[in-house]
Amino acid sequence: MSSRRFNPMGKLALIAVLAALAEGLAAARGAADEAAAKRLARGKRLYNGAGACLACHGADGKPSVPDAPDLTDAAWQRKRSDADFAKALAEGKGTMPPFKGSAADIEALVAYVRSLAKRAPQADASGFSQRLE
Protein backbone atom coordinates (compact mmCIF):
# COMPACT_ATOMS: atom_id res chain seq x y z
CA MET A 1 0.00 0.00 0.00
CA SER A 2 1.30 3.45 -0.89
CA SER A 3 1.94 6.11 1.72
CA ARG A 4 1.46 8.99 -0.77
CA ARG A 5 -0.67 11.82 0.50
CA PHE A 6 -2.82 14.23 -1.44
CA ASN A 7 -0.93 17.50 -1.91
CA PRO A 8 -3.31 20.20 -3.21
CA MET A 9 -0.50 22.75 -3.61
CA GLY A 10 1.46 20.42 -5.89
CA LYS A 11 -1.58 19.91 -8.11
CA LEU A 12 -2.23 23.67 -8.25
CA ALA A 13 1.39 24.29 -9.24
CA LEU A 14 1.13 21.69 -11.99
CA ILE A 15 -2.07 23.30 -13.30
CA ALA A 16 -0.40 26.72 -13.30
CA VAL A 17 2.61 25.39 -15.21
CA LEU A 18 0.37 23.69 -17.78
CA ALA A 19 -1.71 26.84 -18.24
CA ALA A 20 1.42 28.95 -18.79
CA LEU A 21 2.73 26.40 -21.28
CA ALA A 22 -0.55 26.43 -23.22
CA GLU A 23 -0.51 30.24 -23.32
CA GLY A 24 3.06 30.24 -24.62
CA LEU A 25 2.20 27.71 -27.33
CA ALA A 26 -0.80 29.79 -28.43
CA ALA A 27 1.40 32.90 -28.69
CA ALA A 28 4.00 31.00 -30.73
CA ARG A 29 1.31 29.73 -33.10
CA GLY A 30 -0.02 33.27 -33.53
CA ALA A 31 3.48 34.49 -34.40
CA ALA A 32 3.93 31.63 -36.90
CA ASP A 33 0.56 32.41 -38.51
CA GLU A 34 1.54 36.08 -38.80
CA ALA A 35 4.89 35.18 -40.37
CA ALA A 36 3.17 32.88 -42.88
CA ALA A 37 0.69 35.64 -43.81
CA LYS A 38 3.55 38.10 -44.35
CA ARG A 39 5.45 35.56 -46.49
CA LEU A 40 2.30 34.96 -48.57
CA ALA A 41 1.73 38.71 -49.07
CA ARG A 42 5.39 39.14 -50.09
CA GLY A 43 5.06 36.28 -52.57
CA LYS A 44 1.94 37.82 -54.09
CA ARG A 45 3.70 41.20 -54.49
CA LEU A 46 6.65 39.50 -56.20
CA TYR A 47 4.40 37.35 -58.41
CA ASN A 48 2.52 40.44 -59.58
CA GLY A 49 5.59 42.70 -59.79
CA ALA A 50 9.32 42.01 -59.86
CA GLY A 51 8.85 38.30 -60.54
CA ALA A 52 6.91 39.06 -63.73
CA CYS A 53 5.09 35.74 -63.20
CA LEU A 54 1.64 36.94 -64.16
CA ALA A 55 2.78 37.70 -67.73
CA CYS A 56 2.71 33.95 -68.47
CA HIS A 57 0.91 32.38 -65.52
CA GLY A 58 -1.92 34.92 -65.31
CA ALA A 59 -3.08 36.92 -62.30
CA ASP A 60 -4.95 33.92 -60.91
CA GLY A 61 -2.35 31.24 -61.78
CA LYS A 62 -4.09 30.13 -64.96
CA PRO A 63 -1.64 30.20 -67.89
CA SER A 64 -1.91 32.89 -70.54
CA VAL A 65 0.67 31.29 -72.87
CA PRO A 66 0.60 27.72 -74.23
CA ASP A 67 3.65 26.22 -72.48
CA ALA A 68 3.08 27.66 -68.96
CA PRO A 69 1.67 25.23 -66.39
CA ASP A 70 -1.65 25.86 -64.65
CA LEU A 71 -0.55 26.83 -61.15
CA THR A 72 -4.08 26.30 -59.82
CA ASP A 73 -3.94 22.58 -60.67
CA ALA A 74 -3.59 20.87 -57.28
CA ALA A 75 -2.74 17.49 -58.87
CA TRP A 76 0.07 19.10 -60.86
CA GLN A 77 1.37 20.84 -57.74
CA ARG A 78 1.29 17.65 -55.64
CA LYS A 79 3.81 16.09 -58.05
CA ARG A 80 6.35 18.81 -57.25
CA SER A 81 8.18 19.60 -54.03
CA ASP A 82 8.89 23.08 -52.73
CA ALA A 83 12.53 22.41 -53.67
CA ASP A 84 11.41 21.67 -57.26
CA PHE A 85 9.59 25.01 -57.41
CA ALA A 86 12.51 26.87 -55.83
CA LYS A 87 14.97 25.35 -58.31
CA ALA A 88 12.75 26.26 -61.28
CA LEU A 89 12.47 29.82 -59.99
CA ALA A 90 16.18 30.23 -59.27
CA GLU A 91 17.46 28.58 -62.45
CA GLY A 92 14.57 29.13 -64.83
CA LYS A 93 12.85 26.34 -66.70
CA GLY A 94 12.05 26.05 -70.40
CA THR A 95 11.10 29.51 -71.60
CA MET A 96 10.82 30.82 -68.03
CA PRO A 97 13.84 32.98 -67.14
CA PRO A 98 15.50 32.66 -63.72
CA PHE A 99 14.17 34.88 -60.95
CA LYS A 100 16.90 37.15 -59.60
CA GLY A 101 15.78 37.48 -56.01
CA SER A 102 16.90 36.39 -52.57
CA ALA A 103 16.27 32.99 -51.05
CA ALA A 104 13.56 34.61 -48.90
CA ASP A 105 11.93 36.01 -52.06
CA ILE A 106 11.93 32.57 -53.67
CA GLU A 107 10.50 31.02 -50.50
CA ALA A 108 7.72 33.64 -50.55
CA LEU A 109 6.99 32.98 -54.23
CA VAL A 110 6.79 29.23 -53.59
CA ALA A 111 4.35 29.84 -50.72
CA TYR A 112 2.19 32.06 -52.92
CA VAL A 113 2.21 29.61 -55.85
CA ARG A 114 1.20 26.83 -53.42
CA SER A 115 -1.71 29.00 -52.25
CA LEU A 116 -3.04 29.30 -55.80
CA ALA A 117 -3.91 25.58 -55.91
CA LYS A 118 -5.70 25.80 -52.57
CA ARG A 119 -7.94 28.55 -53.91
CA ALA A 120 -8.65 26.88 -57.24
CA PRO A 121 -12.25 25.97 -58.04
CA GLN A 122 -12.85 22.24 -57.59
CA ALA A 123 -15.74 20.27 -59.06
CA ASP A 124 -17.91 18.51 -56.51
CA ALA A 125 -19.69 15.18 -57.14
CA SER A 126 -22.62 16.92 -58.85
CA GLY A 127 -20.28 18.65 -61.30
CA PHE A 128 -20.75 22.15 -59.89
CA SER A 129 -17.67 24.18 -59.00
CA GLN A 130 -17.00 25.34 -55.50
CA ARG A 131 -14.17 27.38 -54.00
CA LEU A 132 -12.03 25.76 -51.36
CA GLU A 133 -10.96 27.99 -48.54
Description:
A hairpin with a 5-residue loop joins β1 (121-123) and β2 (129-131). Mean pLDDT is 79; it is low at 122-133. The protein has a domain at 40-122: Cytochrome Bc1 Complex, Chain D, domain 2. It is built from 5 helices and 2 strands, in the order αααααββ. The chain has a two-stranded antiparallel sheet. The chain is mainly α and 133 residues long.
At a glance:
By secondary structure, the protein is mostly helical. The chain contains five helices and two strands. The relative contact order is 0.12.
Helix content: 55-70%
The CATH class of the domain at 40-122: Mainly Alpha
How many beta-strand segments? 2
Largest sheet: 2 strands, antiparallel
**What number is the mean pLDDT?**
79
Fourth CATH level, the homologous superfamily of the domain at 40-122: Cytochrome c-like domain
Number of helices: 5
Kindly estimate the percentage of residues that lie in beta strands according to DSSP. under 5%
* Unreliable residue stretches: 122-133
What is the alpha-carbon Rg in Å? 23 Å
Task: Spell out the helices and strands N to C.
Answer: HHHHHEE
Report the CATH topology name of the domain at 40-122: Cytochrome Bc1 Complex, Chain D, domain 2
Q: Pairing-aware structural class of the strands and helices?
A: mainly alpha
CATH architecture of the domain at 40-122: Orthogonal Bundle
Inertia-based shape: elongated
What's the end-to-end separation, in Å? 57 Å
Strand order of the largest sheet: 1-2
